[in-house]
Amino acid sequence: MGLPRFAKPKATNESSPNLYVANCGPAVGLDFDTIRSVFGSYGEVSGVYSADESGTRVIVSFVENSAAKAALEALDRRPCQELGGRVLHIKYSVFQPPVEKVQVNDSVTVCLETSDMKIPGLCLIHDFITIEEEKELLAAVDSRPWKSLAKRRVQHYGYEFCYETRNVNTNQYLGELPAFASTLLDKISSFEELSNSLEMGLDQLTVNEYPPGVGLSPHIDTHSAFEGSIFSLSLAGPCIMEFRKYTDGDWRLKSLDSEVENSDCSSSFLKRAIYLPPRSILLLSGEARYAWHHYIPHHKVDFVNESVIRRASRRVSFTIRKVRKGPCQCAYPQYCDSQK
Asked: CA 62 → CA 18, 66, 74, 184, 311, distances in Å?
């Protein structure tokens, strides 16, 4: 399927059904559904797309030129209360022929809320932190050394995760979690949806930095390595996370650094997908944590239903877990390395 590509905004007043809108997009806290809703008050919107990889500029495409003109005249260079009071900078734009072809999401519907996923134990909180808090967290990790892997960079706190064994060495304690992690734990405890799954003594944090096009191959976090719930905070850029649950026993724990997403060897699995916007936090507990493989497709572009979202220049995730000191005795032995 060819992806739509747009020219830079025109400097003239020539009419077009496509508007280039600056100071607007996921990187400034505005999701595509909200943008569609606001612009939709001026006429039927056929699509909202990322204009580039910054996440701060979008293309809003209308069905009719007159609707685009009405939106431009009403919103250009004026504070829009429905979009957080942001002052938008709007010009006309035009389509260019498609320049690349990709397959994304394998036609699976991308959910925006975990209630639509129908996976027990999964919970997503939007806007878990503010834009200012996001900047502070990114500055905190960028002031510390990164470890380079094949395609991304990582930082480990509490205990180091060993990708070769998909486990941790409990004899190699790195020290207490940094102050910025303690702040996150305090915030988690303030959300009822998350605090019920907050185990005492979360003691391991992995920070991942993903450049565009880099994701994670399908895996279940090793049962014998971590106990209880897993929290994952998304910063800087959006992505889609997909989930698979195998129903015929044909499943494999994948290396986090596998070069190939090849777990489609079995057709006997359930599949779900969810959009993770910046500053959201995802909880995996119970069945979602122990029985479902999760992964991030290795794409530079994601389709979120009718919208095209280009990955940002970076995405940073904070994964917070509790290291297990004994064998796992969960209720999902078919997926459990301690019980196989």
From this structure: 6, 9, 15, 41, 23
Distance (Å, rounded) from C-alpha 295 to C-alpha 231? 15
In sign, the C-alpha dihedral spanning 315, 318, 319, 323 is: positive
For residue 281, which of 232, 219, 223 has the smallest C-alpha distance? 232
Q: What CATH number is given for 5-96 in this structure?
A: 3.30.70.330
Is the Cβ–Cβ distance between 283 and 230 less than 8 Å?
yes
Nearest-angstrom CA–CA distance, 307 and 310: 10
Tell me which residue of 65, 66, 62 sits closest to 45, measured CA to CA. 62
Q: Is 116 helix (H, G, I), strand (E, B) or coil?
A: helix
Superfamily (CATH H level) for 105-335: Alpha-ketoglutarate-dependent dioxygenase AlkB-like (2.60.120.590)
Q: Which of 75, 80, 93, 82 is nearest to 37 (CA)?
A: 82
- The answer to whether the CB of 303 falls within 8 A of the CB of 110 is yes
For residue 258, what pLDDT is reported?
35
pLDDT in tens, 10-20: 444 578 888 99
Q: Where in the chain is the domain with CATH 3.30.70.330?
A: 5-96
Residue written as token pair 């399908």: 218
